[in-house]
Amino acid sequence: MLILSHVIIALTSVLFSTYLFFRPSQRKLQASYGLTALTVSSGTYLVVSTHAKILEACLTGLMYLGAVGIATIAAHRKLALQTVKHR
Predict the structure, then answer these.
(1) Among 7, 30, 68, 70, which is most buried by a count of CB atoms within 10 Å?
(2) Which of 30, 61, 17 is nearest to 43 (CA)?
(3) At what angle do helices 2-22 and 26-50 cross, to 10 degrees?
(4) Torsion angle of C-alpha atoms 53, 56, 59, 64, degrees rounded to 10
(5) pTM for the whole thing?
(6) DSSP state letters, the chain
(7) pLDDT for residue 71
(8) Of 81, 79, 72, 80, nearest in space to 16 by CA
(9) d(CA 35, CA 14)
């Protein structure tokens, strides 16, 4: 059950960060950070509790963090540019 929850949270996080890139806001950025933290913490718990191979889990986690991180950073920059233009 936790694996299914972890996968759903991770997929939601990836989709949300993509949406965030196109429609950035401060509140959505915070939600994206929360989803990312929830995914990493549930993944860490799964690795520890199931004694999974750490190399595979870390590689997958790094790829996930890379994709979500790039989208979130790009959205943050986009939001910052919009804020500067409105002033």
Answers:
(1) 68
(2) 61
(3) 150
(4) -100
(5) 0.87
(6) -HHHHHHHHHHHHHHHHHHHHHS--HHHHHHHHHHHHHHHHHHHHHHHHHT--HHHHHHHHHHHHHHHHHHHHHHHHHHHHHHHHH-
(7) 95
(8) 72
(9) 9
Q: Could you tell me if 24 and 81 are in contact, meaning their C-beta atoms sit under 8 angstroms apart?
A: no
What does the pLDDT average to over 8-28? 95
- Contact call for residues 16 and 64 (beta carbons, < 8 A): no
Alpha carbon of residue 19 to chain centroid:
12
Q: Which residue is associated with the tokens 């929850």? A: 5
Distance CA 34, CA 28 (A): 10
